[in-house]
Specification:
The complex is a heterodimer of chains A (about 280) and B (about 240). Chain A is mostly helical. Chain A contains nine helices and no strands. Chain A is flat, with a radius of gyration of 20 Å. Chain B has a four-stranded mixed sheet with strand order 10-1-12-11. The chains are: A mainly alpha (about 280), B alpha+beta (about 240). The complex binds iron/sulfur cluster (2 copies). One iron/sulfur cluster (SF4) binds next to helix 3 of chain B.
């Protein structure tokens, strides 16, 4: 390590974490809307979840474009003459555009009441939608020199975070039906459990990695980043809502909504910490 | 397996018929005068707070026999560059003949994927406003002075180095000075485990200096001063 080096900035700042958060919820809400064609209990979410998903998709797109230092050139991302298919970002931008187009057509079919077409598109949209958290994960995974990011867990972790955050938002939209609320509770519980298991194994491998990994572990588990990652993300945002959902009150709508609120706080904190934490050590190198 | 078959599509070191420029930095000769940094700043009007080349150091030994070990840094013009792979729009590319890793400023959208993927911190974002250049708000980095090399000159940092610590040339040519230095001396590259095949070779680099050390966790005051000044003056 050096005694003096010029300061380097991190590459990806916090708007990306907001993008991950917003797009993850959008995808899961679309999935719940699509599920309503196959599971009757999700029927009350068909329209409301989709409309919110669409709004969040637009917001996510704006966040992504807004973070480019040349926002007016965002069309380069879908220009076939420029696209570099070695980059997961290129696949991601195509996936995002395709999901957006499917969402628009799905919207039209829903408005017109064209059930058969809407049902078909719902499946296509849900599949494309899950491509977004998967590519988000790959976006991080491909940077071979970064601890935490460069693990095969990332795409799976982002899908799981997407389902948990989406179910949390859906619990606020689902007004009443017991079976739906209980299904959302299951999504939160199992998704939250899977996320926690992945994070624990991630922390273990990071703590026992090479010196870069170990230092990343130290940065992510201490100071302000530690408060965000461990405090807000894992304790307040995962352990507490899981405990709440397992308690008797966790079967009532009010308990499920409270857990949903905590899971949303945790979902954002975890995405922020996973994005920023592994970039800190690099700024000193 | 022949040498040719072992080369990936991108690698040009050892590829017949093309040049592969490289730099050798002899740390035994570097006196830390920072003339290379100044020459580079002058050549490109590199803005305040960011660097195409920089010279960090480490203090070693025990008083009274202490010394500073310098480690001049720049883009390694990697033979298998992750920055090229990660750019979604092909704004970062590698020149086949010469191996330069360059930027297409008109195409760059500023997604910073290349910055995230470079293991060497060689890339930075140009500010929104510049006095003498209209290249703004895109990612930039060292070009191995491509514009000088194509005219038969060496990079500005090499030209100016008073200790002649920096040597530049075609490593695909066995009779070049860089080839001879790499053949005769034990050389090190930065973070070889990343598989990027850097083309900046150091003579006399200590891995204690080039690795991430646990002491970064208790960062030196100087580093945090720099960070504070940077945060005051930049919004990225
Ligand atoms: S040092 Fe960084 S910027 Fe330069 S070629 Fe290698 S990966 Fe790319
Ligand atoms: S910032 Fe520019 S050069 Fe870097 S990856 Fe994005 S588009 Fe390519």
């Amino acid at each position: 390590m050096l005694d003096y080096s010029v300061f380097h900035t991190i590459a990806w700042p916090s708007p990306y974490a907001w993008y991950f958060f917003v797009i993850g919820i959008s995808v899961a809400l679309f999935f719940f809307s699509a599920l309503s064609w196959y599971r009757e209990e999700f029927r009350p979410l068909r329209h409301s979840a989709f409309y919110l998903s669409f709004g969040l998709l637009v917001l996510g797109g704006l966040l992504l474009i807004g973070d480019l230092s040349q926002p007016m050139r965002f069309l380069n991302m879908v220009n076939p003459a420029y696209l570099n298919f070695d980059s997961p970002l290129a696949w991601g931008s195509l996936n995002l555009v395709a999901f957006g187009l499917v969402s628009v057509v799905y919207f039209v079919f829903l408005r017109k009441g064209e059930q058969v077409n809407a049902k078909r598109l719902a499946v296509a949209g849900a599949l494309l939608g899950f491509g977004l958290p998967i590519y988000t994960g790959f976006d991080l995974t491909v940077h071979q020199h970064r601890a935490v990011w460069n693990t095969p867990l990332m795409p799976v972790l982002f899908v799981s975070l997407s389902l948990v955050s989406g179910a949390a938002v859906a619990s606020f939209l689902a007004k009443g039906p017991e079976k739906l609320v209980s299904m959302l509770r299951s999504f939160m519980l199992w998704g939250g459990g899977a996320t926690a298991a992945m994070l624990v194994s991630l922390l273990g491998t990071t703590a026992y990695g090479g010196s870069g990994s170990e230092v990343t572990f130290m940065f992510m588990t201490s100071g302000t980043m530690g408060l965000i990652f461990i405090g807000l993300g894992m304790v307040v945002g995962l352990a507490a809502p899981i405990a709440l959902l397992l308690a008797p009150v966790g079967r009532q709508p009010i308990g499920i909504m409270a857990a949903g609120g905590l899971l949303l706080v945790g979902g954002m904190a975890l995405r922020y910490a996973i994005l920023i934490g592994p970039q800190i050590v690099h700024t000193y190198y | 397996m022949s040498e040719e078959l072992r080369l990936s599509a991108r690698e040009t070191r050892g590829k017949p018929g093309v040049r592969r420029y490289a730099m050798v930095i002899d740390l035994r000769r570097c006196i830390g005068c920072d003339a290379c940094m100044v020459a580079c700043k002058a050549e490109y009007d590199v803005p305040l707070g960011v660097f195409r080349t920089w010279v960090p150091y480490r203090v070693v030994g025990k008083y009274p026999t202490v010394k500073k070990q310098f480690l001049p840094r720049l883009c390694n013009h990697c033979d298998d560059p992750p920055c090229v792979r990660s750019c979604p729009v092909g704004a970062t590319y590698k020149v086949e003949d010469g191996g330069f890793v360059l930027q297409d400023y008109d195409r760059c959208i500023g997604c910073k994927a290349c910055m995230a993927s470079c293991p060497y911190n060689a890339r930075f974002m140009l500010p929104e406003h510049r006095t003498r250049s209209n290249i703004t708000s895109v990612v930039d980095k060292c070009t191995f002075c491509h514009h000088r090399v194509v005219q038969g000159l060496v990079p500005a940092c090499v030209q100016t180095c008073v200790g002649r610590a920096r040597v530049f040339g075609d490593i695909n040519d066995p009779s070049s000075e860089v080839s001879r230095l790499v053949a005769r001396h034990a050389t090190q590259v930065l973070r070889p485990e990343q598989g990027t095949k850097p083309q900046v070779f150091y003579i006399g680099a200590d891995r204690n200096m080039t690795e991430y050390g646990r002491d970064v966790y208790d960062a030196r005051e100087a580093l945090d001063d720099e960070r504070a000044v940077f945060n005051r003056n930049h919004t990225i």
